[in-house]
Amino acid sequence: MIVAWTILAFIGAATARSASSIDFTPVNEFTLQLLQNTYAFQENFGTKNIALSPLSVWSIFALLAEGSSGDTFSELVSALRLPKDLSKTQCLHSAATDVLKSKSQDVIVKGQSAMFTECATKVHDEFCESALRYDMSIYSSETQNTTELAHDINLFICYATDGRILNAVKPQDLENLRMVLIDALFFKANWTHPFDPADTKVEPFYNFQGKMIGSVNMMYHRAPHFVGSSEEIQAQILEMTYGKNEDFSMLIILPNNGISVKDVLKNLASKSQNWMTEFRIEGSSPSIGTHIPRFRISSRQDLIPPLMYSGIHSIFDSTKAKLPGIADNALYVTSSIQNVDIEVTEEGTIAASATVVGLEDRILGQSFVADKEFIFLIMQRSCNVILFAGVYEEPSLV
């Protein structure tokens, strides 16, 4: 299960196209840069495991970009890799929204977003139209009544994430706000080839230097998976698909011997994304002996420092933020928090994210053994867009 929510506080006195035809490379560039920046920031506090819902972050700030100007606009366009043409930006944003609409017996993906505004704040019609274009619900609220506002927001998030996220915000989180933006994402999927719990065993887990640092419940099966390697990012890649249609998948990115996760994250953020497709072309999908830890990550991220590392600054500064396209009030972003809880089991993965602005023979044949630190991505395959991303570095028995 992945649970992610982000709080952004604001204080102040296209033509439709198929999502599969859109190039999501710019969105993935933002995602991989944000993942590297978040890892670097959390490393200062000794945090080893992280998980993000970067598409939710991108979606919220892409909407804010439509109401921005001056340096605020320039910084958002650069960091989010947005086209400077508004119609192309709207097309990309709409396509990202469409990706989050999938429902079948074995895969459910749904995204819901909302904007809660203070009754006295006159939000410009153009910004409301932009929000509605991306299926965002708009509510007028008495934001000064933080208890009632927290109740309304938590109810929205609870419903949007099928009850996976409860009490995401507290009244004290919402003091002095003029507007709150929410983006909720729920993902639940069964593996195309599930693991048998009877084959799960306690096994050692190592760091990149080969030192045993703990133990994990190692899942195992032999099933057809795409597997390959990339010298460009210095890692091996395993792709495990979800559902009968195999529209979504998890990529496990395992650093080569002697290479750290930090090195691979740097490569992911700076190199081309050709490896995402090349490993499928050069690799194959034979029956692979697959060893993957059963794991759960719970993390809380302050996203402002990682976003500032990406070059977004003025929107967080009350004296420099320029958001005239949103409302007449002088608004700026005071906080951006994301909580993520991800659980990967023998059956599959459940992911819920709420972004509030205000994821028998084990020897014979080819094998992939994730018994050391790795990076994981959850992707929509036809669009090649990343929904969730994270790092597993500190083992535990779950």
TrEMBL record:
One of its GO terms (cellular component) is extracellular space. One of its GO terms (molecular function) is serine-type endopeptidase inhibitor activity. The keyword Ribosomal protein does not apply. InterPro entries: Serpin_dom (IPR023796), Serpin_fam (IPR000215), Serpin_sf (IPR036186), Serpin_sf_1 (IPR042178), Serpin_sf_2 (IPR042185). Residues 1-16 form the signal peptide. Residues 32-395 form the Serpin domain. SMART domains: SERPIN (SM00093). CDD domains: serpin77Ba-like_insects (cd19598). It comes from the Eukaryota. PANTHER family: GH21475P-RELATED, SERINE PROTEASE INHIBITOR, SERPIN. This is Serpin domain-containing protein. It comes from Mythimna separata (Oriental armyworm). The lineage of its organism: Eukaryota, Metazoa, Ecdysozoa, Arthropoda, Hexapoda.
